[in-house]
Amino acid sequence: MSNSLNSSSTNDEKPAFDSKVAAIGAVSSGLQHQLSTFKSINGHTINVVRSQDRQLALEQLGYKQELKRTYTYFDLFGVAFSIMGLLPSICAIFTQSTSAGASSSWGWLFTSFCGILPVGIALAELGSAFPSASAIYLSAWKFAPEKYKDVCAYSVCVLDSIALSAGACSVFFSCAGQILSCVQVAKPDFVVTHGKKYGVYAATIIFGAFLGSFTGKVSTRIQQISVYFNIFLLILIYIALPIGTKNKNIPFNDGKFLFGNAENYSNWSTGGNWILNALVPAAWTISAFDSPIHMSEEAIYTPRDMSKNVLLDPKASPAAFGIILSISACGLLGWVTLICIYACMGPSVDDIMNSSYSSIITQIFMNSLGQKWTIAIMSLMSIGCFLMGVSAIMATSRNFYALCRDRVLPPFMADWLAVVNTKTNTPIRAMYGTCTVSLLLGLLIFQDQGANSLFTIAVAGFYMAMAIPMFLKITYARKTFDKGPFYLGDTASYIVNLVAVGYQAFMIVLMMIPSVNHPDKGTMNYTVVFTFGILALALSGYYMFMHKYFKGPRSNLTDEEYMETVGEQAGIDAIISFTSKD
Predict the structure, then answer these.
(1) Cβ atoms within 10 A of the Cβ of 12, count?
(2) CA 281 to chain centroid
(3) N or C terminus of the chain: which is more exposed, having fewer CB within 10 Å?
(4) For residue range 125-169, what is the model confidence (pLDDT) as tens digits?
(5) Of 26-40, 70-84, 380-394, which range is least confident?
(6) Are 212 and 219 in contact (CB under 8 A)?
(7) Quick count: other Cβ atoms within 10 Å of Cβ 511?
(8) Superfamily of segment(s) 64-302+312-554
């Protein structure tokens, strides 16, 4: 379908259009229970039968296919796996993890497979049912009671946007820290200041946005390079670190240390400190796994034969495949990586925690590998972290594009940003809008606790956004929710969503607890202030004026475009349209 079609119904065309629609409705009247609804540009209510063809399903949701479909299911896995970027991410959270001791690796394993994976599976079901970049808040709008649909969807929009933006910021912030750590290793007298860190941060995020603005073909190559590069980094550490540790005559830590060592570098109890610092690192690292959903309008789909029982078909549900495989891979590989590093760190945790380097894992590399190897590995990790950021800002920009398409922002701003570049088939304006937001959020770097809050806001906002549609799915919409090609079945789906909501509620609370007991203003955890403060401001703006513009998902198809694309291609069994004005 041509993207240039902008026609609207005229009085002369309406009788013929109505006749065509009436004929389709008469033949398909027995399929009413399968219908979903959206509003066209002209204000008509259009009901559709969902297609297993994901591109048709997108247009049946009311959205014009504007982005070019170039991503395979492996590429979508690559987007999520790249954002998680195991080794660079573990470097970023290593101080927090080590403050609970080497046994924090158990916390990683438990969080990955007992908490994050159920959330990912529940999210995969939502993404499969709503093959759109806006699937998370679209599902919230669909599942919520009629009276609260718009405000519920708007809240999810805000929370998810905060989380994605903070996540991209935290990745580039970590990248800046690792780059400066390399400089520290080369020049021990080099002093890292907030200004220097923000300067490197701003440079990397602008360059990342530039790379992310290329065509889908180039972007997919970047994702593939990132996947292989991250795997290469892991293999390098698995080989080089043990060899270097042995050559330096540093004793390897035994199993008792690896799986039983508990430390406490806070004034919480040892158990409380372990819960705070052993469970959270995996939640921050294995995050942004909704990115395949935000990229799903660029995914290549193959319709599945629904008469066959298949649990997960990568070609029919590429986003679901990307989510589940990336979580599983990072959960297992991250656990192995932590064990490898803790085995080679030496027997004194204090020596590592009291390191003068801005990233304490640098001390382990220096002890085992020496200066040259450390600079080389840290430089490679900086590149890996940068590739993480490129993937993160790409996924964030697609979400930003979807928000603007549905006018979550005021129309004059949203309509300008929700434009796909005709040369690259990418939302370049949304990309640089995302970049601007990230640069502003990055100013938190100048306040130490504010910078730490970037990490926790990314997780807390992310889980709050996802918990809303999942909670609605198992309560109000339990008997009416949409199902896609990936679906566990009524009983298993209910149990998984219940576990997912419970885990997210627990983790949201955990993210908002200060790292020290009885904190002062310098040690306070400001996540609760930032997250709920931004949400309160957004909801105030919604009730004051945005409720005039945001009415839930907003189709950018005219009735004629809809009939041309869906009616003619999918046939009578794919569409029923009613054109009565609301």
Answers:
(1) 7
(2) 16
(3) C
(4) 998 888 888 888 888 888 998 888 888 888 888 888 888 888 888
(5) 26-40
(6) yes
(7) 26
(8) Amino acid/polyamine transporter I (1.20.1740.10)
The number of angstroms, rounded, from the C-alpha of 34 to the middle of its chain's C-alpha atoms is 30
35-39 and 575-581 beta bridge pairing: unpaired
User: Rounded to an integer, what distance in angstroms lies between the CA atom of residue 292 and that of residue 323?
Assistant: 7
Nearest residue to 295 via CA among 395, 430, 216? 395
Task: State the CB neighbour count (10 A cutoff) for residue 313.
Answer: 19
Collect contacts of 518-526 with beta carbons under 8 A, ≥24 apart. Answer: 518/267, 522/448, 522/449, 523/449, 524/449, 525/449, 525/452, 525/453, 525/456, 526/449, 526/450, 526/453
Q: The dihedral of CA 403, 404, 406, 410: what is its sign?
A: positive
Q: Could you give the 3-state DSSP secondary structure of residue 72?
A: coil
Full-model pTM = 0.82
Answer positive or negative: Cα dihedral of 144, 150, 156, 160: positive
* Tokens read off for 120: 């990912």
Q: 355: phi > 0 → left, psi -120 to 50 → alpha, else beta; which?
A: beta
450 is written with which tokens?
């504010």
- Give the number of other Cβ atoms within 10 Å of residue 378's Cβ: 26
Residues 373, 420: Cα–Cα separation, whole Å:
44
CB atoms within 10 A of CB 56: 22
CA-wise closest residue to 466 among 111, 76, 125:
125
Q: Where are the domains of the chain?
A: 64-302+312-554
* Contact partners, residue 325, CB within 8 Å, separation at least 6: 77, 81
Helix (H) or strand (E) holding 259: helix 255-260
Average pLDDT value over all residues in the chain: 79
217: pLDDT confidence band, cut at 50, 70 and 90?
Answer: confident
Q: What is the mean pLDDT of residues 574-582?
A: 37
Residue 495 in 3-state DSSP?
A: helix
Tokens 């990586």 sit at which residue? 337
**Angle, vertex CA 473, rays to CA 472 and CA 474, nearest 5:** 95
pLDDT tens-digit map of 454-475: 667 778 888 999 999 999 999 9
- Determine contact, residues 404/415, Cβ cutoff 8 Å: yes
Q: Retrieve residue 117's tokens.
A: 């994976």
Helix (H) or strand (E) holding 39: strand 35-39
Burial grade of 328 (CB within 10 A; 0-12, 13-18, 19 or more): middle
Sign (positive/negative) of CA torsion 121, 122, 128, 133? negative
Residue 45, token pair as written in the block = 């209510």
CA-based nearest residue to 30, from 397, 579, 572, 581? 572
CA distance 327 to 116: 7
Where b means 16+ CB within 10 Å and e means fewer, 211-233 reads: bbbeebeebbebbeebbebbeeb
- Look at residues 465, 530, 539, 476 and name the one whose alpha carbon lies nearest to residue 501: 465
Report whether pLDDT(521) > 90: no
Distance in angstroms (rounded) separating the CA atoms of residues 560 and 570:
15
User: Residue 28 and residue 575: Cα distance in Å, rounded?
Assistant: 8
